[in-house]
């Protein structure tokens, strides 16, 4: 079928008459309850800090291929897509890449980290079943003493969808450009004291670039049990698998090579791939004690495995990593007189992990660095985390409420190297470049490392009126170094020359509702030290300092009975606060990949009873591509159109046109190893689908 015929069919489907369809939320729901800030339900108006949320109705409307499409609705958030499920993320930060980036953000499902804090990954959010989530909550910046390592710049909590009160069965099929096929199915019911939901999502994508297809499967099984004595248990089993052919960067001396139609669909790395799986199981038990307080205990296990080619590095090595964890979260909730609340808790986790990195290509020297064929790293790490905390909320006066918190986190690593120590070859022989030289990769000898960190928090909320509040939040986020930070070293790094990354943040904001117009505005200032990153020459920097400041705003406005508009906006400046000549860093330079302006505007039209169309405009401002601020990306604007409508009681249809104006842009841009590198943005494409409930 020709492209024009497909487009005509899509428009016809989108214009069909409707009877019922889930209506997307258009306001900020300031009277709703959120769970991430305190690990229990809390009124958003009483929260001392920010929490952005994407609701279940929005998730269903979006039918997103990538979580980037969902989270860009929240101010202070920026995601750059790589190929397939790959991504880099920013929360009140530049888009972070390379070593250390995977540990700057905490990714969770129902309050439990998707991965061990010691084994973070830039792409970690891909494991979350966001396609069928009950909601997604995001805290920008350090948000709570209840969460420790990796919540430096913020956290994302994907909430599993609750079971239905009555029998619900639904299956949804979607097809799209470039041989895209998706299926979503769900079965749910409540029978007596038992409630369950089984959800599945599958993708078979041919890929719009050469040799860039993927297959992905996600499954979530949730069971809720409500005992006669008031106890409740929530058990969640999640599984994820992806097999991906990866299209790498296009490289060029041309700063606008991503606009070259003959280049942007090519794949310079046809042998790149990513195979990745994970399984998680948890049970949360809530028990009300005789004095009316609540004891909550959540044991969990997780297992992750990944193999991929490092197509973005000159060595193009293959990395194999995996880890298995067992842990428990325990908390005791005390409700005191006069509206005071205290939570005492402890998180304990043990992880057994490993990493192996192997270069297939022949040994060579590039940019003055000797990269040897064979095994670069092969090690095992046992990680133990013990983290007690206290969180308290105090009703100081009728309109004043304070939040205080303190967390202590003890992290111990037991590292064991499985190949020769030092900077020679894996078998212990001299580096291939000669006995007086070093290879790039530095393997420490067996060692144990321990990190102890404190995370305090102080927050205040003042109720201006019933539907307006002002808040202030002073908090600290930290992360112990990742195992890759500590043990996958380069020859210019000293073993053990790393401290925990730490960020101190001050935030002031206001939220409210004026005649159904909901709004939230916050300003922030944050300083970070011990920032660990890889510069544009491929060198690791372990003692960086940065400053971050900005303003974030969101608003939702009804426009009569049928129309509404919602918007989010971020203006922020992220800059280096130290000098490093080898990296081109000067204090005051903008951190690379940090657009100052980001916005998202959505115009909604409820064109028939319970039917919705949405036109979305997303703006990414210009940003620098290197620490020296000598190369720049101009930014871009994308427009998307989506429609959902129900044609019978059981059948609904939906469709989307993405990049409606066919903008030429880059999902991700940087400058490294002497070249501009781009993940080119996709041209105009469509999706259409049908769902059946029975």
Q: Can you offer a commentary on this structure?
A:
There is one protein chain. This protein has 694 residues and is mainly β. It has a single domain (3-693), classed as TonB-dependent receptor, beta-barrel domain (Maltoporin, Chain A), CATH 2.40.170.20. The protein is 4% helix and 55% strand. It has four helices and 40 strands. It has a 22-stranded antiparallel beta barrel. A five-stranded mixed beta sheet has the order 3-8-9-6-7. Strands 15-39-38 form a three-stranded antiparallel beta sheet, with no helix packed on it. Strand 38 and strand 39 (675-680) form a beta hairpin. The longest helix has 12 residues, at 3-14. The two termini are 31 Å apart. The model is unreliable at 1-28 (pLDDT under 50).
Question: What would the keywords be for this entry?
Answer:
Maltoporin, Chain A; 694 residues; disordered N terminus; 4 helices; globular; mainly beta; five-stranded mixed beta sheet; 22-stranded antiparallel barrel
Tell me about the biggest sheet?
A: 22 strands, antiparallel, barrel
Return the domain count: 1
Number of helices: 4
- Which fold name fills CATH's third level, the topology? Maltoporin, Chain A
- What is the number of strand segments? 40
CATH class, named Mainly Beta
β content, as a range? over 45%
Question: CATH homologous superfamily, by name?
Answer: TonB-dependent receptor, beta-barrel domain
| pLDDT < 50 stretches | 1-28
Summing up helix and strand content along with how strands pair, one would put the structural category as mainly beta
Query: Alpha-carbon distance between the termini?
Result: 31 Å
On the 0 to 100 scale, the average pLDDT is 91
């Amino acid at each position: 079928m020709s492209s024009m015929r497909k487009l005509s069919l899509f428009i016809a489907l989108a214009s069909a008459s409707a009877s019922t369809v889930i209506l997307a939320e258009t306001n900020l729901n300031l009277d709703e309850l959120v769970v991430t800030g305190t690990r229990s339900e809390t009124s958003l108006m009483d929260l001392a800090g920010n929490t952005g949320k994407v609701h279940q109705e929005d998730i269903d409307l979006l039918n997103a291929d990538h979580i980037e499409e969902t989270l860009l609705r929240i101010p202070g958030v920026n995601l750059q897509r790589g190929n397939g499920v790959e991504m880099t993320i920013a929360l009140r930060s530049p888009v972070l890449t390379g070593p250390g980036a995977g540990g700057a953000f905490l990714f969770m499902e129902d309050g439990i980290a998707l991965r061990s804090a010691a084994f973070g990954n830039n792409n970690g959010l891909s494991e979350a079943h966001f396609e069928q989530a009950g909601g997604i909550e995001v805290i920008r910046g350090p948000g709570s003493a209840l969460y420790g390592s990796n919540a430096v710049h913020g956290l994302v909590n994907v909430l599993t969808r609750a079971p239905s009160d009555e029998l619900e069965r639904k299956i949804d099929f979607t097809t799209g450009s470039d041989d895209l096929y998706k299926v979503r199915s769900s079965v749910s019911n409540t029978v007596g004291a038992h409630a369950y939901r089984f959800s599945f999502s599958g993708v078979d994508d041919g890929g719009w670039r050469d040799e860039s297809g993927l297959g992905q499967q996600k499954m979530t099984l949730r069971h809720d049990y409500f005992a006669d004595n008031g106890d409740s248990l929530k058990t969640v089993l999640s599984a994820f698998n992806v097999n991906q052919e990866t299209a790498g960067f296009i490289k060029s001396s041309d700063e606008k090579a991503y606009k070259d139609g003959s280049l942007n669909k090519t794949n310079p790395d046809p042998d790149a791939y990513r195979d990745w799986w994970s399984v998680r199981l948890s049970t949360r038990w809530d028990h009300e004690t005789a004095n009316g307080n609540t004891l909550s205990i959540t044991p969990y296990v997780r297992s992750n495995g990944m193999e991929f080619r490092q197509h973005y590095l000159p060595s193009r090595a293959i990395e194999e990593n995996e880890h298995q964890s067992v842990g428990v979260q325990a908390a005791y909730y005390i409700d005191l007189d006069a509206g005071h609340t205290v939570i005492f808790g402890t998180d304990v986790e043990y992880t057994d992990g490993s990493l192996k990195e192997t270069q297939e290509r022949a040994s060579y020297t590039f940019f003055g660095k000797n990269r040897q064929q064979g095994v670069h790293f092969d090690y095992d790490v046992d990680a133990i985390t013990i983290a007690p905390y206290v969180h308290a909320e105090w009703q100081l006066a009728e309109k004043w409420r304070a939040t205080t918190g303190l967390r202590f986190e003890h992290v111990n690593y037991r590292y064991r190297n499985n190949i020769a120590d030092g900077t020679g070859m894996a078998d212990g022989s001299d580096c291939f470049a000669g006995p007086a030289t070093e290879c790039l990769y530095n393997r420490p000898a067996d060692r144990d490392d321990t990190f102890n960190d404190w995370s305090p928090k102080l927050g205040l909320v003042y109720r201006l009126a019933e539907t307006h509040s002002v808040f202030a939040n002073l908090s600290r986020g930290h992360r112990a170094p990742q195992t890759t930070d500590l043990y996958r070293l380069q020859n210019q790094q000293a073993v053990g020359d790393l401290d925990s990354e730490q960020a101190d943040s001050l935030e002031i904001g206001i939220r409210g509702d004026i005649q159904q117009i909901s709004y939230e505005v916050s300003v922030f200032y944050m300083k970070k030290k011990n920032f660990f990153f890889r510069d544009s020459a491929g060198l690791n920097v372990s003692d960086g300092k940065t400053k971050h400041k900005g303003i974030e705003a969101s608003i939702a406005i009804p426009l009569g009975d049928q129309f509404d508009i919602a918007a989010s906006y971020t203006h922020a400046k992220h800059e280096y606060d130290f000098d490093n000549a080898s990296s081109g860093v000067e204090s005051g330079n903008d951190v690379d990949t940090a657009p100052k302006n980001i916005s998202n505007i959505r115009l909604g039209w409820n064109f028939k009873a319970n039917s919705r169309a949405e036109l979305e405009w997303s703006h990414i401002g210009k940003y620098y591509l290197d620490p020296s601020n000598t190369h720049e990306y101009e930014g871009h604007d994308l427009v998307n159109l989506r429609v959902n409508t129900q044609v019978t009681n059981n059948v609904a249809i939906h469709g989307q046109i993405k990049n409606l104006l066919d903008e030429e842009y880059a999902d991700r841009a940087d400058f490294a190893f002497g070249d501009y590198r781009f993940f080119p943005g996709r041209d105009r494409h469509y999706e259409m689908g049908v769902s059946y409930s029975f």
